[in-house]
């Protein structure tokens, strides 16, 4: 969801510049700075950004610069002269400059005549807003392609580590059986039937076949959603949680040093997936 976009344009001597940037967020959180002249259009600008950006902690800055000399200010000379004459009547011994300083502060001595925002100017502003969002979305798209590659690599890594578990499965059962048999040699009159019943129970308790199947399915589903669905960030987050559950169960049942090492590496890649998934819409 991170991104940056900038656009600018000129309308009737006014330069309009717009910068948009965003960070990760579970929802659309907009902070916008709009010049006073465009305050009346803030709601429409927010709607454009919300509809197109969708999610993220977004900052939008709109700057306005007058390129031409403004005629908005009017100095009322006749009124200022009248003020000065009245001030002289009150205190005739003052310097003219002091009278002038006081006169220009009095009502209507200097007035501004800001022109109203026209439909044409609003259309120009909206066009620049859309252009800035276009640049922003291009940035997101480029970043998304890199993110897709990283997520795919992490998923493949976990799948590869899972395949490396297989050679150790039978080995750990044999090791457990030998350890128990060695311990039982110290005792006499051992019930061999009961021994094998306990071994069967222990073997079933350590069985990770279901975890492997579910983990494989979750990895496949994650990749399918990532490749084929739009705005899938939240869904990918839920799938990554399910991947984590199976990896944790695999680790608790491992009872083998090499499998535990593989589980640790799976968790390392899963943490990268969870962190990167936060940046997916």
UniProtKB/TrEMBL annotation:
InterPro entries: YicC-like_C, YicC-like_N, YicC/YloC-like. GO terms for molecular function: hydrolase activity; RNA endonuclease activity. Its cofactor is a divalent metal cation. Residues 171-280 form the Endoribonuclease YicC-like C-terminal domain. Pfam families: YicC-like_C, YicC-like_N. Residues 1-148 form the Endoribonuclease YicC-like N-terminal domain. Keywords: Endonuclease, Hydrolase, Nuclease. The keyword Lipid biosynthesis does not apply. Belongs to the YicC/YloC family. This is TIGR00255 family protein. It comes from Chryseobacterium oranimense.
